[in-house]
Design goal:
Radius of gyration: 21 Å
Number of strands: 16
Number of helices: 14
Bound molecules: 4'-deoxy-4'-aminopyridoxal-5'-phosphate
CATH topology of the largest domain: Aspartate Aminotransferase, domain 2
CATH superfamily of the largest domain: Type I PLP-dependent aspartate aminotransferase-like (Major domain)
Largest sheet: 7 strands, mixed
Strand content: 15-25%
Length: 429
């Protein structure tokens, strides 16, 4: 038995499923999750001492690689002054100014402690601001686990939400409409039906929770137009993409102005952080200036703010995003070239520091239903082949993979060498 296997068995006694967040249990790929002992740069090391080149990066935030000295130093130095005060600090002001300076759509921002809190609060604000109850999300987009967001589409043109999880009263989910990502007509149909009751559209500007699916041309612009036409707010959920796809986030990259933006992960540098922001007019509806209640004991935690600011300082340097994009492109194209070489159908998507690969005959994957039709057996075989050889990819065909600035040319070359070998073995079987 490996140490990870031992720990997994032990963990299952006292933690449901042995994990504190479901995807970590390797349900999507089978086998034993690796218990991680430490990480440095592009590498993580498990409890058995096996080192991996990491393409998960804590699901996005480790954009500089693990253990970056600037972040580590900021955390240690800030912690020396105390861990939490439940009172305002100058670090929060600095973080708010940084976010507002970098994102023209954001005049004011409120810090929270997770992406779930960010989206939950943004939706409450959109409902309070518009005085409407319904919200529209997209099937396959994940925005955290607030009750009204754990809803996926059934069939039919106008699909009123059915809860996706026991424990959510149908009454809580019935105001959630679900449309098809990258299909404007599915959105228009709902707005034609009940547009005056819809408070907001919420979406991932590059979907990263159904593998990696960028928006098709005109999709984001079309959503902006529909929102303007019906007086609904456009919430762009950048929890995964924010400051990873580009310095101006994904909405800046694609040139679309949101009413509210939600952020997370990257602005915490690995510490628990989220945020939501928008125009002053909308944000002034938040308590204590406005009536929409929102709060958090640990919100704007000084150590988390310091870590996030240190990370953003590094991301402000010249050429950072160009370098990250180039690394990502090399990996994604390398996977595709290896698959082609061995006659295995594969399609790839990549943007900024995130990428996805799909075992499919389709040239381009743009929709959720296409992801569900991909060859999951080949994905699992590829995943485990890579893992055994020291390459740690996202353990699910429904998650994007992530690059960091710490991934060297040698790391990438090694990754592609392994991919070539694993795909050759799959082709031979
Ligand atoms: N929104 C998006 C787009 C996400 O990817 C996630 C989590 N991966 C969340 C919200 C929820 O964030 P958290 O897990 O920090 O609650």
């Amino acid at each position: 038995m490996t140490r990870s296997q031992e720990l997994f068995e032990q963990a299952k006694q006292t933690i449901p499923g042995g994990v504190n967040s479901p995807v970590r249990a390797f349900n999507g790929v089978g086998g034993t999750p690796r218990f991680i002992e430490k990480a440095d740069g592009a590498y993580i090391t498990d409890a058995d001492g096996q080192q991996y080149i990491d393409y998960v990066g804590s699901w996005g935030p480790m954009i500089l690689g693990h253990n970056h000295p600037a972040i580590l130093n900021a955390v240690v130095e800030t912690a020396k002054n105390g861990l939490s005060f439940g009172a305002p600090t100058s670090l929060e002001v600095e973080m708010a100014e940084r976010v507002c300076n970098w994102l023209p759509a954001v005049d004011q921002v409120r810090m929270v402690s997770s992406g779930t809190e960010a989206t939950m609060s943004a939706i409450r604000l959109a409902r309070g601001y518009t005085n409407r109850d319904k919200i529209l999300k997209f099937e396959g987009n994940y925005h955290g686990h607030a009750d009204c967001l754990l809803v996926k589409a059934g069939s039919g043109l106008l699909t009123f939400g059915q809860p996706n999880s026991p424990g959510i009263p149908a009454d809580f989910a019935k105001h959630t409409l679900t449309a098809v990502y990258n299909d404007l007509d599915s959105v228009k149909a709902m707005f034609e039906e009940v547009g005056s009751e819809i408070a907001c559209i919420i979406l991932e500007p590059v979907a990263g929770n159904m593998n990696c699916i960028p928006p098709v041309e005109g999709f984001l612009e079309g959503l902006r137009e529909i929102c303007d036409q019906y007086g609904a707010l456009l919430i762009i959920d950048e929890v995964m993409t924010g400051f990873r796809v580009a310095k101006g986030c994904a909405h800046g990259h694609y040139g679309v102005k949101p009413d509210l933006v939600t952020l997370g992960k990257v602005i915490g540098g690995g510490m628990p952080v989220g945020a939501f922001g928008g125009s002053k007019e909308v944000m002034q509806h938040i308590s204590p200036v406005g009536g929409v209640y929102q709060a958090g004991t640990l919100s704007g935690n000084p150590v988390a703010m310091a870590a996030g600011l240190a990370q953003l300082n590094e991301l402000d340097k010249d050429g950072v995003y160009e370098a990250l994009s180039a690394k990502t492109e090399t990996v994604a194209k390398g996977f595709k070239a290896a698959a082609d070489k061995h006659g295995i159908p594969m399609s790839i998507n990549y943007v900024g520091g995130m990428f996805g690969f799909f075992f499919t005959e389709l040239e381009k994957v743009t929709r959720f239903d296409q992801v569900t039709e991909c060859d999951m057996d080949t994905f699992k075989a590829f995943y485990h082949g890579m893992l055994e050889a020291g390459i740690y990819l996202a353990p699910s065909a429904f998650e994007a993979s992530f690059l960091s600035l710490a991934h060297s040319d040698d790391d990438i070359a090694r990754t592609l060498e392994v991919a070539d070998k694993v795909l050759a073995e799959i082709a031979a079987n």
